Amino acid sequence: MSKQSNKSSQADNITMSGGGVYSLATAGAKDVIDHATPIVLAAISELNRPVGHWSFSDMGCADGGTSLDLWRSAVSAIRNQSEADIQITYADQPRNDFNALVQILHGLTDFDSYLQQHSNVHVLESGSSFYDPILPSNSLDLGFSATAMHWLSQKPCDIPDHVHMVGASGEVLSQYQAQAQKDWETILLHRARELKPGGKLVFANFCKDEQGRYLGNTDGENMFDWFNSLWCEFRDNGAITADEYAAMTLPQYYNTVEEFSLPFTDKQSKVSRAGLTLDHIETGIIKCPYARDFQSHGDARKFAKEYVPTIRSWNESIYFGGLSSDRPVEERKEIIHNFYSTYESRVADNPEGHAMDYVHAYTTISKT
């Protein structure tokens, strides 16, 4: 079983769970967006736009369910001032489940869409990722993205002894850092072109905070070390090959505040010369809702059954893509099922310390 995913195809495997499952399984991601909503509303209030057409973008939107309340609040804030046309462009990479997005936005599911509450609100869907142009030049009032830009445009290399950059070191870590800085610049330059003068960006990005904390590693068990330990077990017991272990590297990077700020502090950078300035950046932690609920109900099995799907919703496609395509599809599905079942059992047997706390950098950027 020698055929493995290469750098680009591993990144191409990135998909969130479809059919509305992503939003249903990621209550924490919605909590992050709810926390960012006052920041977005403050940015809108500072735009001082004349009555007319408003243009927003939601980049890395997945199925759109987690940001419904944010856009409900944004539209309501504008409607308090005028009946101006409002356009919201939902963008994600082409493999995204846009069918689920359309159904959620247009009220065909149990999600409470804002579209039925307001007139002159127009939603568009784009299969262009934030690594590409999404909108015409000078057309965007405010761009938003949450819990998405940690995904790299490509995997720079495999990590030989871990599944994530938080466990990397030396030259391997340097390659991930370099890729992340290049990608961050690409994202910002595309947005600089799209923004109207005076327009704003509000991002809530995964980060490594000032205390070195990051997603799933705040106070207790290290979630990514658990991923790696279990994947090592599967390799050592022969369920997967050594090549398959190495190929399952999550193409992600968690920037620090300093790394996010670098294109703005360097006044000669392409980003600074494109007119973008950093208004504000601060880190914050949103507690894992499933671990929080566990403190109330105390049922370890219930906790594990609710906790693991939120993880599976964003990394299953990468685990599956790391397996050799020489294996029959059903065999690969069985391996993935066994992996998450094993993790769920371990959490249920000893739940203390397990949590996927969200560590984000909340950032506001303006185009001068």
Structural notes for this entry:
The protein starts with 6 loop residues before the first helix and ends with a strand. A seven-stranded mixed sheet has the order 3-2-1-4-5-7-6, with helices on both faces. 44% of the residues lie in helices and 16% in strands. The chain is built from 13 helices and seven strands. The chain has one domain: Vaccinia Virus protein VP39 (Rossmann fold). α3 packs parallel to α4, α11 packs antiparallel against α12 and α12 runs antiparallel to α13. The protein is globular, with a radius of gyration of 21 Å. By secondary structure, the protein is an alpha/beta fold. The longest helix has 25 residues.
Task: Give keywords.
single chain; 368 residues; alpha/beta; Rossmann fold; 7-stranded mixed β-sheet; 13 helices; 16% strand; disordered N terminus
List the helices and strands and how they pair.
Elements: H1 7-12, H2 21-25, H3 27-45, E1 54-59, H4 68-79, E2 86-91, H5 98-105, E3 121-126, E4 140-146, H6 170-194, E5 195-206, H7 223-236, H8 242-247, H9 257-265, H10 270-273, E6 276-286, H11 289-297, H12 300-322, H13 329-349, E7 358-367
Parallel strand pairs: 1-2, 1-4, 2-3, 4-5
Antiparallel strand pairs: 5-7, 6-7
